[in-house]
Fold:
Amino acid sequence: MESGKQLTGTLALAVFTATLSSLQYGYSLGVINAPQKVIERHYGRSLGVWSERAAVPSGNATEEEDEFQEAGQHPAVVMYWSLSVAIFSIGGMLSSFLVGFVGNLRGRIKGMLMVNVLAVAAGLLMGLCKMWKPHIMVISGRAVMGFYCGLTSGLVPMYIGEIAPKVYRGALGTLHQLAIVIGILISQVIGLDFVFGNDDMWPLLLGLSGAPAVLQTFLLPLCPESPRYLYIVRGEEQEARKSLYRLKGAYDATPDLEEMRREKEEANKEPSVSILSLIRSSVYRQQLLVALMMHLSQQLSGINAIFYYSTAIFIRAGVTQPVFATIGVGVINTLFTLVSVALVDRAGRRTLTLVGLGGMCCCAVGMTVGLTLQNEYLWMNYVSMSSVFLFVSFFEIGPGPIPWFIVAELFSQGPRPAAIALAGCCNWTSNFVIGMTFPFIQTWLDSYVFVLFAVLLLGFTVYIYLRVPETKGKTFEEIAAIFHKDRKKSTRGPEDAAELQQLKTSTDA
Structure:
């Protein structure tokens, strides 16, 4: 019966409910950007290093007043501000290892429900930050929110991938990334100074990052549990059948259950590889390197430098209303994610990633030229602006959405959870490094800051061209065979077999 392939209201509700977490992740990424100056002034006052008069006691008052007319110029404020931005990623780094554990503990639905406590707590810490020391409260709230987002950035794609019908799996899977960019856009719009990005309302702006979790908490009990979790992990065939009927309507569920039975058998045959075993193993080394490089190329491309600090970049480029230019970036971000949804199953993962990284490399060069020559030629401002917009467009075509789901395609059932955990940790760690160091790199390199990203992008483009196979339309066995063929050139087959047997023995023990 074909009705099993149709999109039902229950499936739509389940996907919408799950992606509320992705929306929250995007909102938390973007919310810190627009009200930067307002928050810096509150930090300066709270730390006692800045006042409205910019009166800093010193032997040379004139120079000091010039230096600290803006609260954000004080080293202590710079440090706390950078930490407010980057602590979000520390939370994500720590929790990314726990995705598999939380997802399997009580199920995908109850897992998402449990971690919503963190999101609400984080929202309250930031929303009530004026009641104590704003810098401590905001940094604490951002850390807890990061911990929450590290968990949901794994749980959401896992749940959607498991409930989506095969024919819609690609399109529904990319809704995770689409919800993230919509979240960024919402945070930019309500972060405008005449909405919530002002002296009175900025704590509410930050506190609202916990709001989607409240709505999700009411909707999650209405969503069916993942049939794959129920059958493969819990062994509850009847419950899995009920869940399939809820998701797909009245249809013959036998083929789906048969597919799950085969997957369960394969999973039982294959060793469940620990994170440490995966790092040490030569059998999976090439796949792991490719997975980590894909995630590094996403974060070290410079995209978060634009998300976090776009307002400052537009001010340098001479834009009179930089916040609106930043919102323009958010709109383009969303539109080109939709383009990626349409293209990813046609053009292929490798092609889109290469086009994206190559385009971003050219844009980084364009941005550097524009920022360097903006004082000599007025039209160079337009070069800088166009480069920023194109940079974001190329990112969302490939390097943005693809690393999140290609890791699952590169690994079979046994090593997949460990590989996803390692790739997630790599993603969040590099996100943290960029968030923490970018203001200092910008001060050091000035207009040439994007030369660094251009060099990195060129390196990633060359690596992916040489090492990453196309996974579009291939089975897990076919993808593994590509890596196995490459490995045969340097190692002998029996050694690999022996190592796989050793991995299985160590897991059984």
